[in-house]
Amino acid sequence: MKRERGYQRRSGRGSAASRVGQVRIIAGRLGGRRLRVSTARGLRPTPERTRETLFNWLQGTLEGARVLDLFAGSGALAFEALSRGALEAVLVERNAAVAKGLAEAATALGVDNAQIVSCDALTWLTRACASAIAGGCSKADSYDLVFCDPPFGSPLASRALSTLRQSALLAPRARVYVEWSNHAEAPFDQAAWAILNTTEAGESRAALLAMPTP
């Protein structure tokens, strides 16, 4: 397990992201392009420095990957993955206005391999798991990379990870990225996941997880 410093989640009113209203895609074919950030309450994009750390972790795993972003928000994580070679991404966002903005962003960027779903993430996840089990999950139904970055301080990450862990939605070598408050316990059973990387700063922690090797 590798631990890195330098993770910083901007929060609260007056952050740079909320003032500017944009986030920049760092690298790849869309590198330098900007995403508009909705003013929806509680929406705080993952800062550029944090995304850079995360995608350094993911080097060599993105080409051709199927991506699931369960709490999409600004879409910065999913669009960064697509920019760097991911095959396709599903972005799940509960707020209908924010979901509409994500669809508009995909159009503006010329991205045709992003599916925007306006739905509660846990509801979508439960339905997708049931469908995968009923139909027999194939490679086309599984995900190589999952982002799990719910509203800060909520219990949603724990519930989403527990559902994922028991589902057929994760590809054999899948990676799962999760963020949580350092005032709370880690939202996953540390005996049930392989912890590949961790980082922390301020009031936040993050980890990159994988299913343990049999």
Topology of this structure?
Layout: E1 2-5, H1 16-20, E2 22-24, E3 34-36, H2 48-57, E4 66-69, H3 76-83, E5 88-93, H4 96-109, E6 114-118, H5 121-135, E7 143-148, H6 156-165, E8 170-181, E9 194-201, E10 204-210
Parallel strand pairs: 1-9, 4-5, 4-7, 5-6, 7-8
Antiparallel strand pairs: 2-3, 8-10, 9-10
Question: What's a concise summary of this model?
Answer:
With 214 residues, the protein is α/β, with parallel strands linked by helices. The protein contains six helices and ten strands.
Task: Please provide a written account of the structure.
α5 runs parallel beside α6 (156-165). β7, α6 (156-165) and β8 (170-181) form a beta-alpha-beta unit. The relative contact order is 0.17. The strands form two sheets. Strands 1-9-10-8-7-4-5-6 form an eight-stranded mixed sheet, with helices on both faces. With 214 residues, it is α/β, with parallel strands linked by helices. Residues 2-20 have low confidence and may be disordered. The protein contains six helices and ten strands.
